[in-house]
Every structure is written in C-alpha cells, then in structure tokens.
Amino acid sequence: MDFATIFGLVMAVGAITGAYTLEGGDMYSIFLLAPIMIVLGGTLGATAITTSLSNVNKIPTYLRIAFFGNRHYDAKETIKVIVTLAEKARREGVLGLEEHIKIIQDPFFKKAIRLVVDGTELTTLRDVLENEIAYLEDRHKHGIILFQKAGGFAPTMGILGTVLGLIHTLGNTSDAAKMATAIAGAFIATLWGVGLANLFLLPVSDKLKMRHEEELAHYELIMEGILAIQSGDNPRSIQTRLNSFVPPELRDE
C-alpha cells in the first residue's frame, strides 16, 4: 500500500471537513443525492466519450496502481545483477547467461537477456528494447490522460449542477428564506465537482505519472546495461555508466 497516497487523501479531506465542522457546518447538508449524481455521472460519461470502453473498464486497475503501487524498483540491486551478468558473460560468453533467464522475474529484463543469448545483433537489440519501452509509455499514458480529463470535467459538471439548481430554485420558490436555503444547496454540486477534481482525480493522475516514470527509468537502466553487455564492455565500466541512474549519495563506487 502507498501510504503517501492514503495519508495525503485523508489529510486533505480531513482538513477541509474538519474546518467546515469547526465553523458550525453540517456535514449531512453536503451529501445530497442530486448534485452527487450530476457530478459523478456527468464526469464519468464525458470522460468515457473521450476514450474507449476498454480503457474505462481499467479504472479499477489504475486505482490499484495509484493506491497500492505496482512494484518497487531498486536501481542499486538491478545494477548489481547487471554487473554480475557482465562478469559472467566475459568469462563464459553470452550463452552462460541462459541460466539467469529462469531466475529473473521481470519480464522486460528476462526478454532482454534472452535476446542477448540468442545472439541478436546490437542495433536490432536496441530497436526491440526501445519499442518495448515505447509501447509501455503508450499504455501508461491511457490511464494518466483518463484521470486528467476526468479532473477537467468534474468542476464543469459541478457548475452545471449549480446552474440547474439555481434555475429550479429561482423558478419555483417565492419564499425568501426557503430560496436562500435552496440556493445554498445548489452550490453543493460545485463543491463536489471542485473537490473531486482537486482532491482525487488530478492527484491520482499525477501518482500514475510518477509510477510511470519509475518504471520507465527502471527499463532504461536495464536496456543500457544489456546493450553494454552485448557490446562486450568491461563490467566496471558498465557499473560506472549505470551509476548515473542512482543519486550520488547512494552509489556503490
């Protein structure tokens, strides 16, 4: 579980609702079915128009990645594995790496080693790995853009709900006291739209972008290491080059 995501969401919602309650606000007054239906249904519908149904069906998967993470990437450990592979390749040749295909769990890493063992030419190897990374970026962008668009639609749906509420209120209420209460209720839709966008949808989009950048950096590290092994570079030279992926204070010299 990503505690930063959970903590941030709880902190933001808690601060807003806590301040509202301290000022004498009634929490039950903001949980009105009609505004919630307009914001949630309108946002989901408008977002679905911009993408495909299969992408909408992946929303639970995107949320799982945002809240629970995908995998933890340890650049230092990956560098150690690559250097070990480079040392073995220099001693035994690239065929000696075949036994590591069964040990390594990462699909991209496994595929890269298999290509090296199969004797793939350096330029072809680079093209294949770069294509894998390009397809990865394309898949990840679907989720990032989905939540970005939803975050843009939600406030607009909130305003739409407020306008509808005002039209209904001003056209059917003659009592000034009741009108004031009804107008206040009409603005609940705006509250839900702005809150949903800025406390949930846009932060989830940014979290997915962060996950994407982590995985992308991990794959680029693997690609550089595998290409260096295929080129027959010295293991120490490979380690020095790959250390650029690690903050200076954490590098193993």
Shape: elongated
Strand content: under 5%
- What helical percentage do the residues reach? over 70%
- Output the radius of gyration: 26 Å
**What is the subunit arrangement here?**
single chain
Structural class: mainly alpha
Written account of the structure:
- The chain contains 11 helices and no strands.
- 23% of the residues are buried.
- With 253 residues, it is mostly helical.
- 79% of the residues lie in helices and 0% in strands.
- It has helices at residues 3-22, 33-50, 53-57, 59-68, 75-92, 100-103, 107-117, 122-172, 176-186, 188-231, 235-242.
- The longest helix is centred in the middle third of the chain and has 51 residues, at 122-172.
- The chain is elongated and about 90 Å long.
Strand-helix topology:
Elements (H helix, E strand, L loop, with lengths): L2 H20 L10 H18 L2 H5 L1 H10 L6 H18 L7 H4 L3 H11 L4 H51 L3 H11 L1 H44 L3 H8 L11
Helix pairs in contact: 1-10, 2-8, 2-10, 4-10, 5-10, 5-11, 7-10, 8-9, 8-10, 10-11
